[in-house]
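User: tokens in, sequence out, please.
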């Protein structure tokens, strides 16, 4: 008589499940192998042939293990795009806004230059907060880390990194007199975000 439980535990020794799920899987597979083995014996197969055919019925044990693990693991509650791009992007945007607000309240005065042309009602002057610009690479690095940790591709990681500067780029280009930079930037940004 064969110890099917020991055989199953040996073949699926690296099964990445918690103890309760693993025990349930082992019991279920042991029952199937035992049932197949007895069925083959009743058909007139020799004991060795019945063992061989019962084990062959399970197929490739590594493939079986991957299928078991993927079916037993819980699916993430959010789609990949949300975890890989949108959450890191909005974290970077939120942190950059918080840093900008703190620098506006407690930091040094911004460097500004009067606008000599362009749409005065949108951007009458150019304000540059130099300390805030120095915080952006660190905030972008955090966004890149979060996106990469969630399994994001290089394009999603890069997009999450530069996400806080996109609104400022659009406002800056709105202040320009020529409409071409704005049109090109808006078109490129929308195409870039569509293909994430």
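Assistant: Sequence out:
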């Amino acid at each position: 008589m064969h110890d099917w439980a020991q055989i199953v535990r040996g073949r699926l020794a690296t099964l990445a499940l918690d103890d309760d799920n693993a025990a349930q899987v082992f019991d279920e597979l042991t029952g199937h192998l035992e049932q197949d083995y007895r069925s083959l014996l009743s058909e007139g197969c020799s004991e060795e042939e019945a063992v061989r055919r019962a084990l062959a019925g399970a197929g490739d044990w590594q493939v079986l293990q991957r299928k078991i693990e993927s079916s037993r693991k819980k699916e993430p509650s959010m789609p990949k795009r949300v975890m890989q791009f949108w959450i890191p992007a909005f974290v970077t945007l939120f942190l950059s806004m918080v840093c900008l607000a703190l620098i506006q309240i407690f930091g040094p005065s911004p460097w500004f230059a009067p606008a000599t042309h362009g749409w005065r009602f949108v951007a009458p002057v150019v304000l540059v907060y130099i300390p805030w610009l120095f915080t952006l690479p660190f905030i972008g690095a955090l966004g890149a880390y979060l996106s990469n940790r969630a399994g994001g591709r290089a394009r999603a990681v890069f997009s999450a990194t530069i996400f806080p500067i996109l609104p400022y780029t659009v406002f800056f280009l709105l202040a320009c007199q020529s409409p071409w930079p704005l049109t090109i930037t808006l078109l490129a940004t929308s195409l870039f975000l569509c293909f994430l």
